[in-house]
Amino acid sequence: MDVGQGTATALYQQAVSGTFRMERGAAERCAAVYTRLVDTCLEQQLLDAKRLHQVSGFGGFVSAQELQAGFAAKGASVTDALLGIKEAALRMAAAYLQAGGAFEEADALNGRALNVAGEAVQ
Length: 122
Hints:
Layout: H1 5-17, H2 24-51, H3 62-99, H4 103-117
């Protein structure tokens, strides 16, 4: 599910190609908004969502087990969506930094985004 990753990747590619540029200080302030979202909000939500993968207490009936499996699948879907949002936010931050000429910082955030893209729901 694309929750903004495509848009963020396109913006990053525009910054890399030089068609998207901005003043460095403004770029750093824009990037800070996205990194703050990841660090102060999404990390905790991901931890909470991952706990939904292991639901219990539904009983032994087949219908209860099916219901339990359905809730666990929904927990995995929430985690996938949050990971997508995290990847998009990191890539947006990288795009702004790249557009502002902060190339090393942009590369670091793009690397974090790539790591998130590789995370699998466990």
